[in-house]
Amino acid sequence: MDLHIDEGNLKAVVNSRTDEFDPGKTEAELVEAALANPIGTPRLSELARGKKKVVVVTSDHTRAVPSKLTLPILLKEIRSGNPEADITILIATGLHRPTTEAEQRRMFGDAIVDNEKIAVNDAFRDEDFDYVMNLPSGAELWVNRLALNCDLLVTEGFIEPHFFAGFSGGRKSILPGICNAATVNENHSYKAIASPYSTTGVLEHNPIHEDMVCAARKVNVQFILNVALNGEKKVIAAFAGDLERAHEKGVAFVRELAQCPSVTGDIVVTSNGGYPLDQNLYQSPKAVATAEACCRDGGVIIMCASCCDGMGGTHFEKLIVRGTVDEIDEYLSKIPPKETISEQWCAQIYSRILKKHRVIIVTTFLDHELVKKANMIPASSVDEALEKAYQLMGRDAQVVVIPDGVAVLAVKEG
Questions:
Q1: What is the pLDDT of residues 331-376, one digit of tens each?
Q2: Does any domain span residue 67?
Q3: Is 247 a catalytic residue?
């Protein structure tokens, strides 16, 4: 989308440095090199020897994991050590709707859909899950039985800053990826989300992250493949091996490129980096939380999100339109962890942000009256949104632009 700002108003354009990074290898070479030199584990081909049932957990249609590239390489590595391995690809949906066959073909390619066993996690089908343990938070851990009954559990994903888990990737393939709704809900409780450590870029003392690591260790994830992506969703680095050590190496790489000092503006314009993360309003707080770090109190945040898939969740939609921002937050704050409502965390984060900032949503798919009911301001184009923001903040308002708010880790200095 083209945005037009007078030079006098433009304070800064904040980008991750991933687009500047030259890995010096092709995407396939990066993935193959990571698998050939795993961090803290033997090669995956060695781990696969003698294993009968292998489960590979991958991400769903809401994530930009380049599985069309990575999965064939992963499967080849497994079969080079064990040609007879019985492999199931398990799509980690968390609480999202099931991934359709058409989406699977777009994500994985026809060859994998036609020739491999694929299962889609359904967090709301209780009979698919077994109880494992109680997590550090006290939440019960229920995990998809396919992952519990295999001989080798492998996960793939990608690493980027995450607005309450610190960073994506690694342990997130298990929790929330392939857990039941009750486990995911309690991990994302009002209390957990409200922790000062449950924020972008923070892993230490983060209660959500701690539950996630514990869950992934307990179900014996033996090998991960995580990649880092640039703005074009191209692989610029790959990390394979031990659940925590490989993820930590990837996090350090992403942090180095994504982290920058926050620049405070009266108006902050951002997006979720386009499809697939901008397909509904439920996913949009990711970038809005980045903009929050750069917007002065009382300022305006402009969020560009097509929302071609609508609101993104029936619970979220009901919660985000149930009253004023204060009424929504008060209602959510009284919900005990074990009674957490699916998707309430995005309504909670929006409520936190909307208490300090006005938010304009640029969307052509979402009904504008619904946006207003959600205590936000609708606009059909980014220039229209900017004009509305100027009317609220004055013609001399300083504008900060964060083209991909999910890729940036804005840190307030001091």
A1: 999 999 999 999 999 999 999 999 999 999 999 999 999 999 999 9
A2: yes
A3: no
Phi, psi (rounded to 5 degrees) for 157:
-175, -170
Rounded to the nearest 10°, the torsion over CA 400, 165, 195, 125 is: 130
- DSSP bridge pairs for 303: 270, 361
Domain boundary among 241, 257, 273: 257
pTM of the model: 0.91
379 with 275, same domain? yes
3-state secondary structure labels for all residues of 252-296: HHHHHHHEEECCCEEEEEEEECCCCCCCCHHHCHHHHHHHHCCEE
Choose the catalytic residue: 4, 61, 162, 188.
Answer: 162
Alpha helices in 63-201 (DSSP H): 67-81, 101-108, 110-115, 145-148, 181-187, 190-194
Assigned domain for 381 exists: yes
Residue of 4, 61, 96, 368 marked catalytic: 96
Q: Is 368 a catalytic residue?
A: no
Rounded alpha-carbon distances, angstroms, from residue 371 to 282, 307, 311: 12, 11, 9
> What are the strands, taking DSSP E only, across 135-171?
140-144, 152-158, 161-162, 166-167
Give me the domain span that covers residue 375. Answer: 262-411
Residue 276 banded pLDDT, cuts 50, 70, 90 = confident
If asked whether residues 63 and 147 sit together in one domain, one would say: yes
When divided into structural domains, the chain yields a total of: 2
In a shared domain, residues 270 and 250 = no
Please check whether residues 68 and 166 belong to one and the same domain: yes
Do 307 and 170 lie in a common domain?
no
- Residue 58, C-beta contacts closer than 8 angstroms, at least 6 positions apart: 65, 67, 71, 89, 90, 91, 92, 155, 156, 157, 173
